[in-house]
Amino acid sequence: MAMRRWRGSWCAVLGLLLLTLPAVRADGEWRALEAGLELGRFEIPHPADTRPGIVHVLRIDPAHFRFRLLAASATEERKPRTARGWAVHAGLVATINASMFQADFLSSVSLMLAPGHVNNPRVSRDKAVLAFDPRSGELPSVRIIDRECDDFESLRKDYATLVQSIRMVSCKGRNVWGESERRWSTALIATDKAGRVLFVHVRTPYSTHELINALLALPLGIDRAMYTEGGVQAQMFVGSGELKREFVGSFGGSFTATTGGPSVWPVPNVIGIERR
Fold it and tell me: Are 119 and 71 in contact (CB under 8 A)?
C-alpha cells in the first residue's frame, strides 16, 4: 500500500512538472532535401529539464528510394563503420543503426538476413521485424511486421531482407514499452500512416517509454515503430546534395551528456537508402 501511495505521489509530481515546462514547437520544421526525402526537426518536453529535447526525423518515400541492409559480417574485411562511413562506402543517401548487436561486434541480437547473407538466423521474442526487398511487385516495398497481429511465418517468405528488433509502437498505435527511470539517446525506425518510412534520432536522453509518448504526440502520423540502438552508438547520417549531417548519441543519461570524445563509434549493421 505504501508503494502505491509513493507511485501516486510521484505521478502527481511528474504531472505538475510537465505542466510547468515551457511551450515547445511540436509542429516542427520540415526541410525538403530532394524528391521523396524530407528532414524534420521537432522539440519535445523533457520531464527532467526545462529545456526541450530535440528530435530529428528523416521522412522517406519508398517510391523514390530503395532500402538496403549493410552488415560488416557480409564484407571481406568484416569491419564496422560509422553511419557516415557506411553511407560513403556504399554510396547511400542516408543510414541509421539496423539493430543492437552482440559482443562479437558483428552479429545482431535477433534475426537479420539479406539476399545472399545471413547475419543471425535466430528469431527471438522481439515482436517487430523490418521487412524489405519484396519477392513480388504487388507487395509493399518496405514494412514493419508486428508479430503479435501479423502472420510473420507467412510474411517472412515474401521478403528477402528481414531485421528483427524491439517493438516500440504496436500495430494498434500503442506505446508497448515498459516504464523506467533510465534515460539514453535513441535511434529508431518507424512507418507512418501514409506508408512512408521514418529514420528517427534523438540525442537528448529519454526513457524509451517517455520518448514514445512524445513521438506519438507529434504530427508524424506514426503507425508502427521499432528500436534500433541506444546510447552513444545511436547514430544517423544524411547526405543529400550539399547537406551532410551526422547525428550521434551521447554518454550517460543526463540532459547535458556528451559524446565522450571527438570520434563517432563504428557500428556493424545499418539500414540505408539509395535512389531508385
Answer: yes
Side chain identity at 5, as an amino acid letter? R
Q: How far apart are CA 199 and CA 272, in angstroms?
A: 10
Question: How many folded domains does the chain comprise?
Answer: 1
Q: Is 10 a domain residue? A: no
Q: How many degrees, rounded to 5, is the angle at CA 149 between CA 143 and CA 155?
A: 50
Report percent pLDDT > 90 for the chain. Answer: 83
The DSSP 8-state label assigned to residue 45 in this structure reads: E
User: Does any domain span residue 97?
Assistant: yes
Q: Is residue 18 part of a domain?
A: no
Helix (H, G, I), strand (E, B) or coil at 141: coil
Grid cell for residue 163: 531485421
CB-side exposure of 249: number of CA atoms within 13 Å?
A: 28
Report d(CA 86, CA 93) in Å as an integer. Answer: 10
Instruction: Name the band, by pLDDT with cuts 50, 70 and 90, for residue 251.
Output: confident
Range of the domain at 33: 24-275
Rounded CA separation 198/200 (Å): 6
Q: Are 161 and 67 in contact (CB under 8 A)?
A: yes
Place of cell 540505408: 272
Between residues 265 and 48, which one has the greater pLDDT? 265
Per-residue pLDDT tens digits for 198-235: 999 999 999 999 999 999 999 999 999 999 999 999 99
The residues near 46 (Cβ < 8 Å, ≥ 6 apart) are 21, 52, 53, 204, 206, 255
d(CA 153, CA 145): 11
Domain membership of residue 200 (yes or no) is: yes
